[in-house]
Design brief:
There is one protein chain. With 207 residues, this protein is α/β, with parallel strands linked by helices. It folds into 2 domains: 115 residues, Rossmann fold (3-Layer(aba) Sandwich); 55 residues, Orthogonal Bundle (Arc Repressor Mutant, subunit A). The protein is built from 9 helices and 6 strands. It has a 6-stranded parallel β-sheet. The radius of gyration is 30 Å and the shape is rod-shaped. The relative contact order is 0.11.
Length: 207
């Protein structure tokens, strides 16, 4: 969460003055009833509000077209949206907090209080929608085999010892052991047999 240093911090015990902004009378009534149950919240007119609880309604096709309203509001806004796809547009339009409609509950009091104090808040379930999907990473210690390592794993598949691998490739026993260990590490294997099985699975060698 981030805080706007230009906003004053109200005492925690002070009731939060909230304006309910929704064209749907049923939504307004439901939100008003919820806030009344939570306590320490006064539902007031916009000109007296410290925070606005804004809801575009249940029709998702109208949500994006109404987000521009947020830019003109004089107080910080917690936006209620029906779809995670509307989170980023709501933040871009100026919302200081975003909650899903079906997640509105006791936590809304904390969200309103935080936004009144200058923080930007969001449910953790929604935060993931702002993070672009990342391609899966290779587990640590794995990577592409070099041409020499491919030769080594092919010889491992033939059942050769380190000494015989060294003789076949014209390298020292120490170098052969080094390559075998490198192959096992990159293939995530603890034994030579596991390394061969993994190499076959990846299509690196043929038996």
């Amino acid at each position: 969460m981030t805080r706007n240093p230009n906003l004053p911090i109200a005492a925690v015990s002070d009731p939060i003055k909230v304006a309910l902004l929704s064209d749907d009378p049923l939504l307004r009534t439901g939100l008003s009833s919820l806030l009344a149950q939570l306590g320490s919240i006064d539902v007031v007119e916009s000109d007296r509000a410290e925070v606005a609880l804004w809801d575009a309604g249940v029709d998702p096709s109208k949500t994006l077209s109404r987000l521009g309203e947020l830019r003109n509001l004089p107080m910080p806004v917690v936006a209620v949206v029906g779809d995670a796809a509307h989170v980023a547009p709501a933040i871009a339009a100026g919302a200081r907090g975003v909650v899903l409609r079906d997640q509105v509950g006791p936590g809304i009091h904390a969200a309103l209080a935080a936004v009144r104090s200058g923080l930007t808040v969001m449910d953790t379930q929604l935060a993931s929608s702002l993070v672009p999907n990342q391609p899966p990473r290779e587990p640590k210690g794995r990577g592409e085999l070099t041409e020499r390592e491919r030769q080594v794993v092919q010889l491992l598949a033939e059942g050769l010892s380190n000494k015989l691998i060294a003789d076949r490739l014209g390298i020292s026993d120490h170098t052969a052991k080094f390559h075998v260990n490198g192959v096992m590490m990159k293939l995530g294997s603890s034994t030579r047999t596991e390394a061969v099985v993994e190499a076959v699975r990846r299509g690196l060698i043929r038996l």
